[in-house]
Fold these 3 entries.
Entry 1:
Amino acid sequence: MRIDVITIFPEYLEPLNVSLLGKARARGLLDVRLHDLRGWTHDRHHTVDDTPYGGGPGMVMKPDPWGEALDALLAGERPAADPVVVVPTPSGRPFTQELAVELSRAPWLVFTPARYEGIDRRVIEEYGARLDVREVSIGDYVLAGGEAPVLVMVEAVARLLPGVLGNAESHRDDSFAPGAMAALLEGPVYTKPPEWRGHGVPEVLISGHHGRIARWRRDEALRRTTLNRPDLIESCDPEAFDKHDRETLAALGWRQGADGRFWRPPDGVEE
């Protein structure tokens, strides 16, 4: 996969050289190219922003540098397929594991992390008319710029590429993994030693009984999900839960509505 990132802070993306991503780049599994947006400016101050039309606080990134940068990438040495252009923005579609899987199937991704109040809307409209442009948010909060979201998304996507993880099965049980029986958070994990500072490992994990271990992990995933992300339980297709799941959820205070979906009465409120 080829990934291009256009940014005014290429140094922010240095983490792409370390750990799994760095190894993937060294092995030729991932071709990451960083581009300084200021290289497509033509004034002595390398200006990339200006005041917004209509007034208001902050500055807006100018369309000319972005247009020249994207045109240069599209006209240069490139994969045969057009890129998917990913625009990090708090107003975009939520970034999910499902979207990470979808993006991992693209041969070429171009990320356009913005600063200030964002990129002049005409850039999105211009390239959205002829390319697959995705506006994507990593969460309901605002950062100083889009480089941190790029790091998040590139790592989430790249680890799904064949050969990047040492164990090809590692991501199958990830939290939110598509195709699972239900979109549950991953449960707790343990390793050696069997006792640490008075804390032991759950007996079932050292029992050697694979069926019991699988059931325990499923139950713990249900418990963690009901605690940290109850919305996932509420939105899940009830057919995703087997009989034991339903019993576990009932023991945790969940009920099934007329449509079969699970819901939990507020604390202190009787049905």
Note: The mean pLDDT is 93.
Entry 2:
Amino acid sequence: MRAGLVSLLEGLGHSVVAAVGDGDALVAAAREHRPDLVITDVRMPPDFKDEGLRAAVRLRASDSRAAVLVLSQYAATAYAAELLGPTGQAGVGYLLKDRVGEVADFADVVARVAAGDTVIDPDVVRQLLSRQRTANPLDRLTPREREVLAQMAEGRSNPQVARVLGISDAAVAKHIGNIFMKLDLPAEDGHRRVLAVLKYLRS
């Protein structure tokens, strides 16, 4: 998988500065090379549990500039929520490995996360939507506001949300404003979009 990713990324015009096999080596290489993007599997040696995820979380906690894309075999919502926990200014992504084969979409995700966007796999978002929610701030949202928030969780910008849902940019902005208000996210907080997605993922 690692060799295949290197070949794919280089074929897309990217330079791969390191390809490593465990979480400690990943953190060390990222700190040495300061790449535009770190891509890791959730599971890495020695135990093949969540070492890659832990490395990504550790890296983001120590360096707010570190953009990280985590690949997973399964749509584990807890992993996505934990990855988003240490919010920084750089991008973060959580993607199922199956998506890598969809080269054009994968290339788009790589570019977006490296540019600072937050991208969550659509299957993870669908799992979150299917959950039963009780005594939850998200219960305050209208069905349309939930749709807008789901699109935000997938990392889409306001114009992209407007196109997907077939509504105007102004309507999207109004819905997002309502979401922030209903989730009690203060206007002075510069990370309200990320905080809204976090509330969504953790609900």
Note: The mean pLDDT is 85.
Entry 3:
Amino acid sequence: MPIYEYACSACGKEFEKLVRQSSPAPECPDCHSSELRKKLSAFAAPGNSASRAHAMPSSCGSCGHPDGPGACAFQ
């Protein structure tokens, strides 16, 4: 169930809304208008930056290959 960001065209209010497939079209919480514009927003990935840093190898020092040291021919 994604959370979408909306901007109301009628009053300018910006808000977030959890949207299910079966839920009715959202409306503005302030003016109750259904004239909404879906905003482009960033998404969140599970975990935190510390756990991702340990899970992913560092790049190769010779060529920058993303699979880490020893993944390329420039060992």
Note: The beta strands are 3-8, 14-18, 36-38.
